[in-house]
Design a protein that fits this description.
The protein is α/β, with parallel strands linked by helices. The protein folds into two domains: about 150 residues, 3-Layer(aba) Sandwich (Rossmann fold); about 80 residues, Rossmann fold, CATH 3.40.50. Strands 1-2-3 form a three-stranded parallel sheet, covered by helices on one side. Helix 3 crosses helix 5. The longest helix has 16 residues. The N terminus is likely disordered. The chain binds zinc ion.
Length: about 300
């Protein structure tokens, strides 16, 4: 018999896990800075994981650019950078475990065939369970879905408080392996967080409603659930998310102290104006001395004037 370690005594391991679909912008800097500060102030480690599992969406050279941007902003990570594209074997092992337990089944539905199904508040299709009873004839390359039971999944978010979702109602059986053979984000992120010993996930609120799905997967794979904190997204004045896909302006190559000062203000920690001019290390020292996650606004998004 093994005694489960008390999670409150576990050393803090945090991470930043960007997808290399575009360079960092102010919104992704907010997520990076918040998770870095939370780890550093706790005396923990801070890991960098490049989420390049969806190869077709990745842009060559961007993973290197993100590393340069983080370093230029003084956000140094611990240990080697991990690339999801090199970790298929461990995702396959977890996938095999779910298959062996009868938790996953093949699905022949295409995006087009599900286009008329109801969507949830995030705009995601709620899968109606069409293939639960069997794959339609003629499907040679199915995707694989996790069988999701009706159960309310709750967690305590360190920024947003207690949140509950019934994934069966909200998203239905979700994809863990795609029809093109790639493992899905939900599976990869859960396996990686556990494999890297991540104890604290601090990330953008765009992933808030992915969390109950990830907790379901953790439970079914027998993995621990980290503590979660979801930071506000940054939108433009019109409420549109600053996203790489929408060509948000990348961070400039100089004036990092000013950028970090803006990110700190969004995180509820506006620095004294004299510090915003730099030097960067003094600003980061101030931020470490003042960081309290309770001061982060419990909002899904914060609008800023044009970057
Ligand atoms: Zn289906």
């Amino acid at each position: 018999m093994t005694v489960a370690p008390d999670p409150s005594l576990a050393p803090y391991v945090g991470r930043f896990a960007p997808s290399p679909t575009g360079p960092l912008h102010l919104g992704s800097l907010v997520a990076a800075l918040g998770s870095w500060l939370d780890a550093r102030v706790a005396g923990g480690r801070w890991l960098l994981r490049i989420e390049d599992i969806d190869g077709p969406r990745c842009v060559p050279g961007v993973a290197d650019q993100i590393q340069r941007q983080l370093a230029a902003c003084g956000l140094e990570w611990d240990g080697p950078v991990v690339f999801q594209s090199q970790r298929d074997a461990i995702y396959a092992e977890a996938f095999g475990q779910l298959l062996a337990a009868g938790r996953a089944y093949p699905c022949g539905c295409t995006r087009a065939s599900l286009a008329q199904e109801p969507r949830n508040a995030e705009g995601e299709t709620r899968y109606p369970g069409r293939c639960r009873a069997g794959l339609p004839p003629g499907v040679t390359h199915p995707s694989w879905r996790l069988r999701v039971e009706e159960v309310s999944t709750c967690f305590e978010d360190r920024v947003r408080g207690t949140l509950c979702q019934n994934p069966a109602e909200d998203v239905g059986d979700f994809i863990i392996r795609r029809a093109d053979g790639l493992f899905a984000y939900q599976l990869a992120v859960v396996v990686d967080d556990a494999a890297q010993g991540v104890t604290h996930v601090v990330r953008g609120a765009d992933l808030l409603w992915n969390t109950p799905r990830q907790i379901l997967l953790q439970r079914q794979l027998g993995l621990p659930t980290p503590q979660y904190a979801h930071l506000p997204l940054v939108t433009d004045a019109g409420g549109r998310k600053l996203s790489k896909q929408k060509q948000a302006p990348a961070l400039s190559d100089n004036g990092q102290a000013l950028l970090v000062a803006r990110a700190l203000a969004i995180l509820g920690h506006p620095p004294p104006s004299a510090l915003a001019a730099g030097p960067l290390h003094e600003l980061l020292t101030w931020a470490c001395a003042h960081w309290a996650i309770s001061r982060v606004p419990a909002h899904a998004a914060i609008a800023i004037d044009a970057a």
